[in-house]
Predict the 3D structure of the following.
Amino acid sequence: MIRVAIVGSGPSGLFSAAELLKRRRDVAVDVFDRLPTPFGLVRYGVAPDHLRIKSVSAALAKVFDDPRAQFYGNVELGVDIRLAALREAYDIVILAVGAARSRALGVPGEELAGSFSASDIVPWYNGHPYARDPRLANAESVAIVGAGNVTLDLARMLLKAGSVLAGTDIPDAVGKALDGTGVRTVHIVIRRGPADVKFSLSELMELETLDDTDLILKNADPDDGDTLNDKRSDLFRKWDRSATGHAGRRVVFHFWRSPGRLLGRDRVEGIRLRDTDGDPAGRHQQEDLEVQMVIGSIGYYTESPDESIPFDDELGRVLHVGGRVANGLYVVGWSKRGPSGVIGTNKACAIQTVSCVLDDLGGRRESVVDPARRADLVAARLGHEDARRRAITWQGWNRIDQAEVELGAAYGRERTKITDPDLMIEIGTQSN
Ligand code: NAP
């Protein structure tokens, strides 16, 4: 058996595992994840009300029906296992570590309380075990910087009542926080014009499902036919005509603006916007918005998984050729190509990396690593003396899964996520 380790159990990692198992009979795959749970971005990144996309996890889980695939959660690369040890224990190592960190805005005031990034808020509303409560009740107006789909997820979630999300798996505390939120206005700060936004049409249309919410455009003429020629512009035109100005809540799109600084002494009290469209007199116009919370949502980056790996610090991704990083070492997903595309994009990405792996393996049928190394590595994780550092197997995850379903039933819902990492680990390691 050729022994493969995949680090990361999000879509790219599990698509890769499935592809490998499908294409070669003589391959066994161990999938590691730093969290006690599988599914990465699907579980903790996709918005809770995107139930159809969330349901991809059921398809991803099928890979573990194959006895050649094993899951080891609660095992962090660089903390619990070193990359060098992994490479000695496996013929092939595939990094599928994602891009968990938001890019910083890089403006003064970003360190103030009330300043967040998408990678703080998205995991929180998704019940991530290590996320902190952003205390929404303190904010009436919020500015989100960036014109991508994550911004629209954030805007929608901040303006949706928790009770509307009853069909989702959000933790009870998140539902209560969203019910008790004071957020009435979400300002979206966009550095270019309406023709250049990265919002997709379907995500824009979802804003129309928000109750009692005006959708307002600033600094853009939606009838500017030179630049607006797709369906998104029809939507912008419609919104521009139909905003009542009297709704209880509003989403305001500020085109041609970027943040100059966050304002406030101890915590965020406002955001200063600069005109990015220039102006003939050469004076950059400024505008201050009163907000109590700012969220930077301008894309993500990967942190270098190991100092031995060739890495592009600027772009925040692993350097590779067609997925190959070094002899026996590969990369897939957002850590390979950057934070772009939808979940399905990772399938093609996984096929490319796996094809590269199989090309390199060629006719090789047998492992060239000492099987005792892999056995020792796995045994050390499963039987760790510190119970909180023990690995969680697929059976262990199934117990957590079941506990979440039972917790959901207590609230009259299909499932409610458990957020306490110690509790997850306790449930997940019960019969190691
Ligand atoms: P994104 O689509 O890359 O959007 C990032 C936005 O930030 C862009 O509008 C970009 O503007 C702006 N930006 C970058 N640097 C900036 C700066 N220094 N100042 C101001 N603005 C800046 O990223 P994302 O929203 O994080 O989404 C990541 C990926 O996940 C995307 O592929 C997205 O489509 C996908 N996603 C999909 C869904 C869905 O399908 N439902 C939901 C969520 C996310 P420029 O264009 O001017 O660079």
